[in-house]
Description:
The chain is of the alpha+beta class. Helix content is 17%, strand content 32%. Strands 1, 2, 4, 5, 6, 8, 12 and 15 form an 8-stranded antiparallel sheet that branches. The longest helix is centred in the middle third of the chain and has 17 residues, at 66-82. It is globular, with a radius of gyration of 17 Å. Residues 155-160 have low confidence and may be disordered.
Amino acid sequence: MNISNYYWHFPAALTPKFCDEVIAYANSKKEVMARTGGYDNKKLDKDQVKNMQRKRKSDLVWLNDTWIYKELHPYVYEANERAGWNFDWKRSESCQFTKYKHNQYYDWHCDSWDKPYDKPNTEEHGTIRKLSMTCQLTDGSEYTGGELEFDFRNYDPHMRDEDKHLRRAKEILPKGSIIVFPSFVWHRVKPVTAGTRYSLVVWHLGKPFK
C-alpha cells in the first residue's frame, strides 16, 4: 500500500495529570510478561520464554476503561484524516500499558497479520489491526535508550543496517506525546539502558483492506 505519511504525531498532547493517573492506575494492577504471536495463552517452559524474549522483553498491564479511550480516540480520528489514510475502523482493542525496564525492548515487528481475527461470536471476528497508537507516559528525560524507531521498507525484520529508511521518532519523547501509524509499518523499541519507559499502546480494528 502506497502512503505518503508513515506516522502522525501529537507532541505533548496528553496532560501530565492524565499520564500520571494512567501510570498509577496500571501500577496498582498485576502485570504480566509480554508475549509475541504464537506464544499467546500457552504455558511456557524456560526455553520457550528465553526464545520468545530474544524478540520481546517487557511487562504489561491490560486496560479497557472508558475514561482512557475517551481521551485517546479524538487523536486517532484526527491522525487518520490529517495523514490522508482515511482507514475505515470500528473499534479498539484493550489498551496495553507497557513497562520497559532495564534491558527490556521489542525488536522489529509490525502489529498486523496476514489474516483477520478468527474469533466467532465476538466483535473482533473478521477484523484486522489497521491503526496503531503509542502514547508516551514518561518523559524522555526519565530514561535512556528505549527509542521508538520505524523502518519504511518491506524487508527482513532481522536486518540491522541503519540507513535512510530507518527513522527514530524523536517526536514522541516529550511526556504525553502520541504517535499514530498504520499497523503494517515495521517498528521497534530499542533496549532501555537506565530508568523505566512507560507507554500505552492501542490497536484499532476494521474490516480487511480491499
